[in-house]
């Protein structure tokens, strides 16, 4: 196998667009691609394991990492903080593995500033009406909560122009094939493959 410093893929979407389904399938199906493991100040939920689902740390340690520039990006969501560790990410990328970050738009834009060549992917719902129907079909949220999610979804949709690729999740299989193709196309880009081509050329 050809080993090279890994690629960074970022995926964002409004709640209900199907991002988690697509991202989980991608990591299970594509070799040498792993999920990023975020640091968080929230407590573990039942079944969650430190170092597998998240790195669970306290507020003081999070503050120290912020001061020391230890995060590529970090955000506060619903009273808890989440961040991508710079040392962890660099260590994984150095092995040649690709990393997929499932983060919301604010974190994604912060990461883009830190890693300009990260590939940014936004999952689009087919329409606002379809998104609202998906949220209602879950049966988990009140009308008020759905209204809040829809307003937040509009805010996220307004940032679509900051992403490199837009994948509409209307047909799940088609959306997955498009999502997967972005990873393989990035791996074969001229910028990534130039060192390999140069080594082959030197053999002539």
Automatic annotation (TrEMBL):
Q: Gene3D superfamilies of this UniProt entry? A: Guanylate Kinase phosphate binding domain, P-loop containing nucleotide triphosphate hydrolases
Which of UniProt's keywords are assigned here? Answer: ATP-binding, Cytoplasm, Kinase, Nucleotide-binding, Transferase
Domain Guanylate kinase-like: from-to ranges: 6-184
Binding, ATP = 13-20
Top EC group? transferase
Q: Is ATP-binding one of the keywords UniProt gives this record?
A: yes
As one GO molecular function, the record gives: kinase activity
- Which InterPro entries does this UniProt record tie to the protein? GK/Ca_channel_bsu, Guanylate_kin-like_dom, Guanylate_kinase, Guanylate_kinase_CS, P-loop_NTPase
The keyword Nucleotide-binding is annotated on this UniProt entry: yes
Kindly state which reaction or reactions the protein catalyses.
GMP + ATP = GDP + ADP
Taxonomically, the superkingdom here is Bacteria
Entry's HAMAP family?
Answer: Guanylate_kinase (MF_00328)
Query: Do you know which NCBIfam families this protein is assigned to?
Result: guanyl_kin
Family note:
Belongs to the guanylate kinase family.
Query: What is the protein name given in its UniProt record?
Result: Guanylate kinase
Organism source for this protein?
Geothrix oryzae
